[in-house]
Structure formats: C-alpha cells, structure tokens
Write a structure and sequence with these properties.
Length: 295
C-alpha cells in the first residue's frame, strides 16, 4: 500500500472535528441489486458508471473481485459476472440486496442456501445472461440491466425505499491527499487520483487511468479504504480466503481530504470518524477497498 492509502497528518488526539454537516437529504430508491464482477481478466467492466457503491475485496490468487451495488439499475449491461464468496454474500445480506452471481464457492453456496437473501444465479437463470464474443469463459458472462430489474420486480420484494440523512463535508483541518494506492499481491494495484476541477476521484489500475467497457472514465465521489483480516481456508485446494467482516480501521477520502476513523458492517459498510462522527455514505457514489494491507 502506498503511503497515501492511510495518511499521516490528521491529529487523533486533538479532538478537532474533521467533518461538518452541509445539508440534509431525502430520496426514494429502488430495491438494491448487488452484482459480483471480475476485476482482473474481466477488465474493462460494464456497469461501473451506474453503480451507487463499488466494493472491492480480495479473492484467491492475490486478485480482487468487485461487488457493484445499484439503487437504480439503468445500466445497459453488467459484467463480467463472477461467482460468489461468503463475505460478499454477507455484505449483500446486510444491505437487503438481491445478489446476482454465477455460482459460487462451496461455502458461499451453503451460506446462500441457509439465508433469506434473494438471488439471481446464472446457473438457474441463464435466460438473464449472455456470453460476449471475443472473450473466453469465465470472463465473458454479462447480464442485461433491464432483464435484471424486471427479474427483481417479479420477486415482489417491494418497489422502493426511502433514504434520508445529512450530507457531510470535510473540515479545513482534514489533511489534503490527492493520490490513493492499495496493492494486492504482486501484479495488481488499485488506486484513485483526486480531480479538483470535478471534486471527484478517478479510478486508477496499476498506475494507469482506468475506463469502463465503453471507454468512459470511472469517477466516484468518495473512496473508503477499510482494513480487514484475511487468511487462506485450511485444506482449500483453490486457496480461497476466510475474511471475517469485523469492525476495523478505515480512512475516508472526500473532496480531496482524508478522514481517519473506523468501519463497521451496517446496511453494507458504515464509517465513523476518529472523533466519533457518523458519516452517512449513502449520498455519495463510493468505492470501498477492503484490504489486509491497511496501515
């Protein structure tokens, strides 16, 4: 992890507030849909621009996988869709989301079968998915956005939900950080660069600016780097990981500034500053990077 991933310069002992309320908000959102995407051989992906939240977590082999979460599923297509892991299922469950996936690890499938989470699994719902020519399996499976939303609606889980809260902004005391880097394994580094003119963060892969499947730059309002523990599952021939989703240290990057604090599992991922301020992430398009390399 680069030094920018967990900034120095913020004073935990001072007690000075690093965020301040800006305004309240209230809006209607559709039932959340969480889709698991490949993030290495499946790059560039479709459906990143339309996601409200993108959660990046490690999987076996020193790679990462993405879970794109949609409050409004208006993407033309989403993919490449990949298999589930227990920790992604656990997060989707806390969100009350419909989980879209292409099978899963043995532990993930047991967890899904034993929970009440609604799922759209390509193994049973192949009518919602198609293979893209020019790419090899398993990195070529895509779902149509309209088809997914229609399938979710047919589950009759409730059409919408109200989201309300307070939008926060960083205080002037919060340190400025323009570059964020997180390394996974030997061959992959996730990162973001702050663009002051847009007040947004642009996604960067291995030091290069990254785009989506249509050549569009991927921007987010906020980046959250969350520390986790992870270890290989005993006797797993694939080297799959055990990742307990417990509270941990975290840094939130917002409007070019860094706010240190902690994360917890609460309707997805929630963040509290080191000074105890709960910062609502729902108003922001947020990329969450969960890494054992947090420093």
């Amino acid at each position: 992890m680069g030094a920018a991933a967990s900034p120095t310069g913020s004073d935990r002992s001072s007690g000075a507030a690093l965020v301040e309320p800006e305004r309240s908000y209230r809006e209607e959102r559709e039932r959340a849909v969480a889709v698991l995407l490949d993030n290495v051989w499946g790059y560039p992906q479709a459906g990143l621009l339309e996601a409200s939240v993108i959660i990046e977590m490690p999987v076996e082999g020193g790679l990462t996988r993405l879970m794109t979460v949609y409050d409004r599923l208006d993407a033309e297509r989403v993919g490449p869709v990949r298999s589930a892991r227990p920790y992604f299922h656990e997060l989707a469950l806390t969100m009350g989301a419909v989980l879209v996936h292409d099978g899963g690890s043995p532990d993930a499938m047991v967890a899904i079968a034993g929970s009440r989470i609604p799922t759209l699994n390509a193994y049973q719902r192949g009518d919602l998915f198609s293979r893209q020519e020019g790419r090899s399996a398993p990195y070529n499976l895509y779902a149509g956005g309209n088809s997914l939303r229609e399938a979710v609606n047919r589950l009759e889980l409730g059409d919408s939900r109200e989201v309300r809260g307070v939008i926060h902004r960083p205080a002037e005391e919060a340190p400025e950080v323009g570059r964020i880097e997180v390394r996974f394994g030997q061959n992959y580094q996730s990162g973001f660069g702050y663009v002051p003119e847009l007040n947004l963060y642009r996604w960067v892969r291995n030091g290069e600016r990254a785009n989506d499947a249509y050549g569009e730059a991927v921007y987010v309002d906020a980046v959250l780097i969350a520390g986790i523990s992870a270890r290989p599952l005993p006797n797993d021939p694939e080297g799959r990981l055990y990742i307990p989703l417990r509270d941990g240290e975290a840094t939130l990057y917002l409007r070019g500034r860094a706010i240190e604090g902690s994360w917890r599992k609460d309707q997805g991922i929630a963040f509290t500053s080191a000074q105890g301020e709960i910062i609502d992430l729902a108003p922001f398009k947020t990329w969450v990077v969960m890494t054992r390399n947090y420093q």
